[in-house]
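Inputs:
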Amino acid sequence: MTTTTTTLNRRGRAEVPAALETRAANPPVSLAVFNRMPLYLRGLKALREEGELTVSSVALAGRVALNPSVVKKDLSLVIVNEGKPKVGYRVDSLIEDLENFLGYNNTKDAVLVGVGRLGQALMGYRGFEKYGLNIIAGFDTNPEVYGAINGKKVLPLGKLESAARRLAIKIAVLTVPEEAAQGAADTVIRAGVRAIWNFTAAQIRAPENVVVKNEDMAVSLAVLSQQLKLILEREEREEK
Amino acid sequence: MTTTTTTLNRRGRAEVPAALETRAANPPVSLAVFNRMPLYLRGLKALREEGELTVSSVALAGRVALNPSVVKKDLSLVIVNEGKPKVGYRVDSLIEDLENFLGYNNTKDAVLVGVGRLGQALMGYRGFEKYGLNIIAGFDTNPEVYGAINGKKVLPLGKLESAARRLAIKIAVLTVPEEAAQGAADTVIRAGVRAIWNFTAAQIRAPENVVVKNEDMAVSLAVLSQQLKLILEREEREEK
DNA sequence: TAGATTGTTAATCGATTAACAATC
DNA sequence: TAGATTGTTAATCGATTAACAATC
């Protein structure tokens, strides 16, 4: 049995024994929280542009159209240096903490499978680097696309496994045709990849220790057109 | 004051007066619900492939790894023909109802602004038609891309406003460079567009009666890399 | 008829919002 | 010191899950 002594520090916050602290440093962050973090980051960068050095939870909440309480709670998950009562949070250190939390500062190498139009677009997109993703090479079965895009090599699919394994690549971007998706996924998983960013409409089967994130445009489109429908219907009613 | 008479029909379901029914037919569906609908659709199509004519909520729930209660509740939002106790739901009519709900059967015309690599990829992607989106033309300021892609014209940006207005286009796909995003959004809104599918990293300001759906790859990537991090850390702990 | 399964209502769980003691 | 604002705890709200009467 473990005895846990819990004391209170100033402001009544619970002091956690060091052994537990490591665990608590990795709280299960909900997806809702995760989706808000980039909003704060955007708002804070705008504030920095405007020359602001500090910001209160109320001010930041107003900017991103959220409740101040949710802002305070979310920020408490990422901040290293506490905010100061009456002053607020330091804009620059908050930006740094958010970027660390989101992993933008820790560049991750990735391979891309399927150098068709979408694959080429993603390989050519320089914005990923800003978010810490570095596509080191593309792989395809079509010799016509072999060469280089945006300074990154495009190689035969057969070379993927050894290359990914040698470089210990953990992330793969999947932009193959739908019917080739599962096969490509199996290949990258064999090569040691543990996270698949799936841009195909296929549903990928993968072992439990591999993350699959679907960039599901069908869902986005459905949400968009449903919202559009509601807006148009509302206006029609109001016109009457 | 309005008097509302509410009677009960078989199974104790409340009978709603006709006047209210129209309103109730448009319940505010949460995003969580919306994201699950395409899962059901996928599962049902797989079942149809396997020759199944009916499916119970428990069976479908198992397939999509969700709770049967949530399946029953979600389906109750879309079904036209009720399921039958002891039998379940008809697979084919459920597919139809879901596709109607998601708007896949009601094709919507759209314009695309910014025919760079990503824009070209989206114009060339035939999968959108499956989901009811028809990109009728692309617009750009760069004369080098004028012509046609996938049978769709690419025209000068200057022609967008009159074309969109003439054809009463309500949806625009934004694939311009980040710094051109707000300007492009303003243009399409002037042309009468009411829904913007934003693939840029820019945050678009738009009037209340215009929907903006961000295809925010930064968020997706952050979620993916966070999950990857958790998996790798867990394994590290277990290896010790 | 008996039992499986529906649609819906009630109970539970988690996330959001409000309130507040601590404090700069 | 007085008041603004923090971090956190308590109250509220909504979504998920379980339970159940209706019924094929």
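Chain A touches chain B through 58 residues (CB under 8 Å). Flag for discussion at group meeting.
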